[in-house]
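Weekly modeling sync, notes
Attendees: S.R. (lead), two postdocs, one rotation student

Agenda item 3: backlog of single-chain predictions. S.R. asked that every request posted to the team notebook include the full sequence so nobody has to chase files. The rotation student volunteered to paste the first one in as an example of the format we agreed on. Action items at the bottom.

Example entry:
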Amino acid sequence: MKLPQTRMQAAVLALAAILPITAIHAQELWDPHLRGVNEGLAAGVLPPKGVYGVLNNYWTWVDKYDNNGNKTGLRVRALIELPEVLWSTGLKVFGADYAVAIAQPVDYTTLSGNGIPANGGWGSFNTILVPGQLSWTLPNNLHLKTSLAVYLPNGSSSPGRLPSGTYLGAANGFWTLQPGVALSWLHAGWNLSMDATYAYNFRNPDTHYQSGQQLAIDYTAARTIGNWTLGLGGYQENQLGDDSGSGAAACGHAGGCRASNYGIGPLLGYQFGKLKLMAIYNFGLQTRNDVGGNFFNLRLSFPFQ
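Predicted structure, as returned to the notebook:
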């Protein structure tokens, strides 16, 4: 039984620049993509007809970097719980398998450094709706999937709506539209996949700030033998458009304060009957105008039926 390979896992909450308290801006707060979260998946494939659950348990410890790739002294630690439900409908649309999904991430984040007392708390991120995923089976063992994710501005806190005594919101206070495309080559237990999303962020009505567009890509090279899967994952994130609004003028220097992030690391999975467990660890390689570092993700995937 194939387990869910969903755009929702690509579509959430990566730790981005913590900019309301710095002099240089690259995004207002969080990236809409949780970096590396789709590593290990056959990203171009949808599971057979049915309803599926996925739970990502994602820990990350990162530092804030400036435009030259140097640490600024700010540190973020976070636990992100990302539950999602995917319905593979069994319908065909334009010759492709069709699915929909929903996710509601929650997170516990702490911010410290540069004289800021350590502080943190739980909160809910933007609800993420995926009204459509289309997956085609192509010749030569290739699979192609397209998708669209919509981030609702309904998180528990955000820039412009911060709880008393805190420095970070749990969510973004604006809408995001995130189309995506994924390609997988699957043969004799091998999985070579690329999963790309493009995020268009709308203006935050509370702060009148608009974060630039972002490209995020997760990569997988893995082999399954029996119940075991072993491989390598990696990610890149690149801000393609400049920010606008109050504070964005600080990005006038060369490079535009656009965020970039790269990482790579091992992955290991095991199939327990209908339950699939996968552990992923990534080392941060290079970061500019963003928070960067290491993460560990423990993913559980299972059918409800």
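Discussion: group reviewed the output briefly. The chain has no helices and 14 strands.
Action items: rotation student to repeat for the remaining queue; S.R. to check formatting next week.
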